[in-house]
Amino acid sequence: MHRLTKLLLTTSLVAFAGLSAYAEKVLRLDEVAVGELDPAKASDYADTILMFNVYDTLVIPRQGGPGLVPHLAASWEGEGTSYTFKMRDDVQFQSGNPLRAEDVVFSFERMQTIAQGLSFLFVSVDSVEVVDGNSVKFTLAEPYAPFISSLVRLPIVDKKLVMENLGEGDGEMGDWGQAFLSSNGAGTGAYIVTSHNPQEETVMVKNPNYFLGIGEDAPDTVRLRYGLEAATVRTLMAQGEHDITSQWLPPEVMRALVEDGNQFLTEGGTGAFYFKLNTQKPPLDDVNCRMALANAFDYESVLKLIAITDEVSSGTGSTGAIPVGMFGSNPAGNEQQRDLDAASQNLADCAYDPNEFEIEITWIAEVPLEERLALLFQANLSEIGIKSTITKVPWALFSSSVNDPVNTPHVSQIFVTAVTGDPDTLLYGMYHSTKAGSWQSPEHLNDAEVDRLLDLGRTGASDEAREEAYSALNDRLLAIAPSIYGFDRQSVFVARPNINIPALTDPDYAFGLDTMGFAFRLMAIE
158: domain CATH number? Predict the structure, then answer.
């Protein structure tokens, strides 16, 4: 029995012994499957909730304001291509092992070797090494402007625990602990995983030794459920057996839940909703045909579909390829407009005859709102004489099938977020030619000018230089239409009235990064 198992057993016994003194506080919420627990592979919303609770990072976004603050790092210094972080000396992993600089080196090497998830954020890192006892130095091959912000997506794993649980594989490191970390946590985080089924549920309990402490009213146990139907969520909420919904419920279900006495929670978006166009599959390999679709889309009607009440909505009007407020974005007041005359001209200029093709529009099965958006888009296309079909696709099937343009549908509907809050992490993974074929990039775009501007955005020596690069990128993307920019995103959830989450209700406590509001240690069950 390794130390983590002993700790879990001890925690459970302590909790059981105290049941007579107080009722256990259990938080139940849901998200879209699959919940990926391995921090080297995690990338989507459910995964990120797990990462920010089971693991910690060197830095985190400042709560209630812009910028980043030390977290596992006590401090840092550097610029250009060299950054040194001094580690805290009061942090233990959930196993009881002390946090050391060598764990940071190991976590980086593991992520880069596995080369999945968000490993692309660190391609500019040339080396990571332990220096001066418990300090770690990152050396970059070239300047990378968003480097510090990228570290919010480098969860630090317990090297000693992982080394004790290596599975079979090539080389000395075998599988780098992938089998073990697919169902076990190895972090310093505020919550310890007690069970994990990536299709059904992850159960977590408080870490009694968390270095920042956890509030008494924070949940003792968290049950993160996956793939619940909207009707199931509504029934469970009515019965008092569910506490926070996902953001994917239809608007009328959210309205009904709030009318029943529950509350809205909102998280300001750092991303957008996209209709992704497969630029390698006819007829959408022709820019004129893509522009026809973009001009035919009804941007005003989509905002009505995502409105939940007169005051609460899942998004705001898109002004272009980059959400309002980020480097290079067009300001609010410049929202995109439908133009059927332009769409008809675009279609006339397309090399393909609309009478001879049919556009496949897909929607993610776990996100019922997307079916309505697909139906709206289908109606828009019919107005300019384009036939289309609509296909419902489970997330797991979609994300595994888009690596090949042949298997990728003409139109995919996806929410994408800047995973560090910086536009590089929104746009590079979607549009750089080296990243084509992931769930973020079913456009399969290969455009030299887009690549050049994305690289400039990464290496700009000043905010002004980066603003200039991203503004030009915005213009280029609008001109070649690899995507239709539906709306800038705001996440909306419904919670029972006894759930108190300042990070999702008060701007003075909000984080500038999606999912950070779901740090369970900062919640209270009243």
Answer: 3.40.190.10
